Amino acid sequence: MAASRLLFFLALFTAGISFSFSETDPRDDVYFGGTAAALQSLKDVWKNTPPTWHKSDDPCVDWEGVTCSNSRVTALGLSTMGLKGQLSGDIGGLTELRSLDLSYNPDLTGILTPRLGDLQNLNILILAGCGFSGDIPDELGNLAELSFLALNSNQLSGRIPPSLGKLSKLYWLDLAENQLTGPIPVSTSTTPGLNQLLKAKHFHFNKNKLSGPIPDRLFSPDMVLIHVLFDGNRLTGEIPGSLGQVQTLEVLRLDRNALSGEIPSNLSNLVNLNELNLANNKLTGPLPDLSQMKILNYVDLSNNTFAPSTAPLWFSTLPSLTTLVMEHGALEGPLPSRVFSFPQIQQVLLKNNAFNGTLNMGDSVGTELQLVDLQNNQISSVTLTTAYTNTLVLVGNPVCSALSNTNYCQLQQRSTKPYSTSLANCGGKTCPPEQKLSPQSCECSFPYEGTLYFRAPSFKDITNVNLFHSLEMSLWVKLELTPGSISLQNPFFNVDDYLQVQLALFPSAGKYFNRTEIQRIGFDLSNQTYKPPKEFGPYYFIASPYPFPASWAPSGKDSGGAPQLKGARWFSYDELKKSTHNFSENNEIGSGGYGKVYRGMLADGQVVAIKRAQQGSMQGGLEFKTEIELLSRVHHKNLVGLVGFCFEQGEQMLVYEFMANGTLRESLSGKSGIHLDWKRRLRVALGSARGLTYLHELANPPIIHRDVKSTNILLDENLTAKVADFGLSKLVSDSSKGHVSTQVKGTLNDDEYYGLREIMDTSIRNLGNLTGFGRFLDLAMQCVEESASDRPTMSEVVKAIETILQFDGINTSSTTSASSSATDFGASRSSTLRHPYSDPVPRKDANVSADAFDYSGGYSHSAKVEPK
Ligand SMILES: *[C@@H]1O[C@H](CO)[C@@H](O)[C@H](O)[C@H]1NC(C)=O
Ligand SMILES: *[C@@H]1O[C@H](CO)[C@@H](O)[C@H](O)[C@H]1NC(C)=O
Ligand SMILES: *[C@@H]1O[C@H](CO)[C@@H](O)[C@H](O)[C@H]1NC(C)=O
Ligand SMILES: *[C@@H]1O[C@H](CO)[C@@H](O)[C@H](O)[C@H]1NC(C)=O
Ligand SMILES: *[C@@H]1O[C@H](CO)[C@@H](O)[C@H](O)[C@H]1NC(C)=O
Ligand SMILES: *[C@@H]1O[C@H](CO)[C@@H](O)[C@H](O)[C@H]1NC(C)=O
Ligand SMILES: *[C@@H]1O[C@H](CO)[C@@H](O)[C@H](O)[C@H]1NC(C)=O
Ligand SMILES: *[C@@H]1O[C@H](CO)[C@@H](O)[C@H](O)[C@H]1NC(C)=O
Ligand SMILES: *[C@@H]1O[C@H](CO)[C@@H](O)[C@H](O)[C@H]1NC(C)=O
Ligand SMILES: *[C@@H]1O[C@H](CO)[C@@H](O)[C@H](O)[C@H]1NC(C)=O
Ligand SMILES: *[C@@H]1O[C@H](CO)[C@@H](O)[C@H](O)[C@H]1NC(C)=O
């Protein structure tokens, strides 16, 4: 019977092997053997690929970050994975790829392979925040389907290839923060150019070394640009009048260049502008007329060489202004009070001009006004108003020469602090290194962190609680995080005049985000799927590396080879410590040579049993990994499941479901209303000598049990079928890599096996208290010793059982005829009787791979077993 079961088993294995290889579509064999092969070869050159990539040979089967359709790779999303290496030409083999996001992997370096141009179906290409260098390949111009191209924040150099002008579907073009040089290419009779990008809404070329004039030809009325960010380059010449034809423009940043000449009058046509920043150029002539820009929020014309003039009319007519900046503006005469009365005005920064006469801010000062900086002007007197009590700086004006002690003649008056998410509710709790306190739960965990750069916020006031609260809320809502599990810290306007904010996102449960979540959040931010409140304007995000839990394999090339842990969760040491009240004695439910078992309660209320290895009984990293890998695959309604594990801070712990009806011990002591199913209990005890041994207290009917005379572990038919669902074929293909091998150490003996079971069944059935049950378990453990010579013979077992029963005052004569005493059995064994919790320390012998297999309750099979 058992043999036939085993045969069934074997059949499964064989079937498994036959389909263990790549299932991707063979039609993909365009370059290097198809998409699977292309990704395999990328895997080989990249370090830190997700552990699941080492689990299966088929990228379309459970590789994190890989999306397939019809067995072809269509999306690769590996944001913030800590990838290291180069982008090899093999990427070109992923011909069905539609979306490629490698953002925020700063250790991805080297050149951008021209073979990116082979990805004819590519729609989204995001390489932001990596370490790529060299030229942008011309071949990117072949990506006819491309709509989103983000190459920002790398070290790319050379020119912007004119071929990008062929990307007729492009709506997002971000080349910012590189080392790009040369002109902005426009089309000629023979070459394409960026003026052809009629679908483009975003030209983000800021912070490069682009030079030459902004071509007049670049802009046309057919364009739909909303953000033109050319700031921080070396652009020269005049601002082209054609820019005034792009009526859709909302943000125009040309600041920090070397633009000269007069501002074209055409610019005043840009009635949809929210932000205009022309600061730090060499612009001359009269100030532009902005009076038609009724929704202009933010204007900065500082540090040019405009002709001296009085305050332009629009100082008094732009109702939406939040921020007016014109330092070194050559402004003179009186400063109109109207500018202080706009409903949204926050900051008026006009230092180093020549405003003179009396400053009168008027009686209807805007309620948002925080800062008026008029340093180094010619103001000789001030009419103070009770309507304004925030900061006014007049240092360097004649009015201060006599009144230097007055508040407005001092710097450093500001008392309000920049916004930061409050942790006040957490009572000053501190966290271990790398962890941070979630403002929502006040728990320490590993947040996903990075910096948000807002390239053109419509405001300047970084103390505005409401604005930042709205940012927080939009983040947790749109990134699907637990409400409040977000922290914003230290906002400030940096030297580039970008609003920079430290962002930390906290996992909803547990200490860590998993890779899938990190990839998702990273993509939401890199693909601009997340949109901040409108006031924050265009942004980009740069993630900090995420500290994923240490990987499994102890060493070697294949060090990313962590197991795929279906359902098994990583627990941090701190989490388990907390769940067991610091591993308190009260929580102990068992102990033995290997360590102790604790009852614990997780944050979500789940009660678990935690087996904690003590120093000296730790397994090697690989063995522990293998054990978890196998245990986590075994799912059965009647078998206690592995919930997770902890492998950090020098600890090895396994976390199991805890049976709701109490432990065996409690059952024995009558606490849980007796009627133990002894048969089941014994079968648990027979589980295995290692990995599953401690399950005896936890499992109800065990489904895995070991044959008495061999080291084979048998599965009930029911579990066998279940396990098949979980992919035994995978196990076998793993074993082909040498991780796990199988070996039959004995032969089956049905009679003995079932004999034992029957004895137990009939003898123990319907008993009340059974003080000898512990000894049953000890006996059972003897039966599953690793070495056959350490296991009792069948007659010894029978004797032992009789003795135990007699000790309990039970009449055994009806079930057995043996009569010798139990001491024979106990004394005849060199090894001490082990309580089932005391599963032995794994042996470091030459057959370690076989051990690694069977101690985990795995599935032995033999090619030699013949059906009976
Ligand atoms: C300025 O804009 C008008 C209309 O928008 C257009 O006709 C004219 O050609 C533009 N001037 C320049 C120099 O582009
Ligand atoms: C104007 O130039 C000065 C001196 O270079 C600089 O300190 C200041 O930040 C500039 N102002 C603005 C608004 O860019
Ligand atoms: C203010 O400056 C303007 C232009 O420089 C000058 O004409 C005017 O007399 C000055 N007014 C005062 C009160 O100094
Ligand atoms: C990652 O975490 C999310 C949310 O907690 C969960 O829904 C998802 O199943 C996890 N994915 C993996 C592969 O563990
Ligand atoms: C990427 O962003 C674009 C526009 O922001 C959006 O339409 C698209 O759905 C996003 N892609 C995904 C997969 O979210
Ligand atoms: C937990 O136990 C360790 C020693 O076992 C002790 O040093 C530590 O203070 C305890 N922590 C708490 C919170 O009880
Ligand atoms: C616990 O015992 C009760 C009553 O015997 C039973 O209905 C229930 O299913 C048991 N729960 C588990 C998890 O075994
Ligand atoms: C397997 O499951 C079936 C249906 O649930 C049940 O009748 C049968 O007894 C089970 N077999 C074993 C060996 O537990
Ligand atoms: C079981 O043990 C308890 C306490 O030791 C005792 O009160 C009870 O009578 C016993 N029951 C049987 C059936 O022996
Ligand atoms: C044990 O059981 C046998 C058979 O049922 C019976 O003859 C004998 O009297 C019993 N002995 C005791 C001590 O109960
Ligand atoms: C390993 O297994 C083989 C085959 O069963 C056996 O011959 C050998 O003695 C074993 N080695 C050790 C160290 O146990």
TrEMBL record:
It catalyses: L-seryl-[protein] + ATP = O-phospho-L-seryl-[protein] + ADP + H(+); L-threonyl-[protein] + ATP = O-phospho-L-threonyl-[protein] + ADP + H(+). One of its GO terms (cellular component) is membrane. Keywords: ATP-binding, Glycoprotein, Kinase, Leucine-rich repeat, Membrane, Nucleotide-binding, Repeat, Serine/threonine-protein kinase, Signal, Transferase, Transmembrane, Transmembrane helix. PROSITE patterns: LRR (PS51450), PROTEIN_KINASE_ATP (PS00107), PROTEIN_KINASE_DOM (PS50011), PROTEIN_KINASE_ST (PS00108). Residues 813-845 are annotated as: Disordered. Residues 583-868 form the Protein kinase domain. Pfam families: LRR_1, LRRNT_2, PK_Tyr_Ser-Thr. Its EC number is 2.7.11.1. Residues 813-823 have a biased composition (Low complexity). It is found in: Membrane. Residues 1-22 form the signal peptide. ATP binds at residue 611. GO terms for molecular function: ATP binding; protein serine/threonine kinase activity. SUPFAM superfamilies: L domain-like (SSF52058), Protein kinase-like (PK-like) (SSF56112). Belongs to the protein kinase superfamily. Ser/Thr protein kinase family. This is non-specific serine/threonine protein kinase. It comes from Turnera subulata. The lineage of its organism: Eukaryota, Viridiplantae, Streptophyta, Embryophyta, Tracheophyta.
